[in-house]
Amino acid sequence: MDIVVNEELKAYIEPLTPEEHDALERSILAEGCRDALVLWGNVLVDGHNRYGICQKHGLPFQTVQNPRFKSMEDVHLWMIDQHLGRRSLSDYQRGVLALRKREIVAERRARRAAVESGAVAAPEAPAAPEVVAAPEAAPAPLPPQDSLETREALARAARLSSSQVVLIEKIQKQGAPELVAAVKAGVVSINAAAAVATLPAEEQAAAAAAGAEELKQAAKRVRESRRKAPAASPASAADETPGRTDEPVAEAGVTALQQRIAALEAENAALREELAALRAAQTSSLSS
Q: Strands of 43-46's sheet, edge to edge?
């Protein structure tokens, strides 16, 4: 069977670093390709690096069909679950995958609800790739209703804290491509990147281009400006207006302050986790 490499699937998960690819190649040359490549019909789903290395050196490999794949969404969800369980991914990468899974599940549930309510007609089954002796299978089941609908549940799925999920979501929504690339490369921490993501895109790109130190300084400037912000809150402005007792404005000031406190608590939690990770790494290096 001719195996088809789908470039979209190949790029769906973060690629290996050159060092990781070299280590995998050395392992396969020494021990052979121990894990079977996962196929959907003749389309390669899992094992792109192993397949490339085996092709390069003329090495044999095994393949296996996953009978639960009925659509590209099934394939994507399976790929995400497989990679969420791997230790080699960074916290940011796991967070991005968990957010991506939530989007897929939410879209699928919305379609099913629309079909069940009669709002739209049931879609035709998508054309599957050529399958060699693939058994019939039902669509892959969705996760439980509440499994990804809260940040706490999402954090558990990605093995992160809720505050980290908040920061990663902010980077995904507001981060310039250059800033996102810096986070993926480990040039800047998630906490610092989330602060920089609040700046205009041009400033984010400039800070990322200047390197790690400038990104840290940009994050520091953002945090310092936030600390000064409560001094110019709507509540204080109302107090300075003679004879004015605008209760809605005062309430807005309290709400803004509460939101600010919540944001600071999330940042503090993320900083404590970074400090704990650094201490653990230092202890590990000293013991080795």
A: 43-46, 37-40, 63-65
